[in-house]
């Protein structure tokens, strides 16, 4: 450990090769049928390999959700940046898109022939159900992290759910209202000095 790391108490990040990042994201892209990429990323990056801590990963999910673009590619950019900077971004995003790109080009050539295959339709329904289960697991993981932060994040989370899921308010308006509120609540504050009233 360097003197700077010793003084600040920061942890040493494990060195992760660009090929390892590319390989993991390649298989995530290839086998994530019917969606569910975000939970799979969490499983591979946090649970299976320990490349990131859950408390570092979950904010990436939130950022990926509110920024324009596809959630999974946004999250791949976030993870790649966290692991290896710009080179990590290129490796993660390139890996995740290579397999699906090739598969989609091949699938479009035989699309009309496979559309009527009943077992394939049933299999895709099952895969979609599994993807929903993985998404629920990721959501519960985020909820557990929020519970440890106190009651206010839970109230904000429930209010957001009600506004979007129940009241059907436009997503843009909900994000515009709840994001600044969430940031204000989570913003670190200096503790009061013991002599302050």
Task: Characterize the structure shown.
The N terminus is likely disordered. Helix 4 packs across helix 5. The chain folds into two domains: 137 residues, no CATH class; 36 residues. The chain has 197 residues and is an all-alpha fold. 76% of the residues lie in helices and 0% in strands.
Percentage of helical residues? over 70%
Distance between the termini: 42 Å
Tell me the overall shape.
globular
In terms of DSSP E residues, the strand content is under 5%
Mean pLDDT: 80
**Radius of gyration, taken over Cα atoms and rounded to an integer in Å:** 20 Å
Q: What letter string, H or E per element, gives the SSE order?
A: HHHHHHHHH
Q: How many separate structural domains?
A: 2
DSSP E strands, number: 0
The largest β sheet comes out as: none
SSE-based structural type: mainly alpha
Stretches where pLDDT is under 50 for at least 5 consecutive residues are 1-9
Instruction: Give the count of helical stretches.
Output: 9
Give a concise summary.
By secondary structure, this protein is an all-alpha fold. The chain has helices at residues 3-8, 18-31, 37-48, 54-66, 71-109, 111-114, 118-147, 151-166, 171-186.
């Amino acid at each position: 450990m360097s003197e700077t790391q010793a003084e600040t108490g920061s942890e040493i990040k494990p060195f992760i090769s660009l090929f390892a990042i590319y390989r993991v994201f390649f298989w995530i892209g290839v086998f994530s049928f019917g969606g569910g990429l975000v939970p799979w990323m969490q499983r591979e990056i946090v649970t299976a390999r320990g490349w990131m801590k859950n408390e570092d990963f979950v904010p990436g999910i939130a950022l990926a959700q509110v920024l324009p673009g596809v959630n999974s590619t946004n999250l791949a950019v976030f993870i790649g940046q966290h692991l290896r900077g710009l080179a990590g971004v290129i490796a993660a995003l390139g890996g995740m898109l290579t397999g699906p790109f090739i598969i989609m080009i091949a699938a479009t050539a035989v699309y009309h022939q496979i559309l009527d295959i009943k077992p394939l339709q049933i299999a895709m329904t099952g895969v979609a159900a599994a993807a929903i289960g993985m998404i629920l697991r990721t959501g519960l993981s985020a909820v557990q992290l929020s519970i440890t932060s106190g009651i206010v994040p839970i109230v904000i989370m429930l209010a957001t759910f009600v506004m979007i899921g129940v009241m059907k308010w436009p997503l843009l308006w909900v994000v515009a209202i709840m994001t600044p509120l969430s940031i204000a609540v989570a913003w670190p504050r200096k503790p009061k000095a013991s002599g302050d009233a």
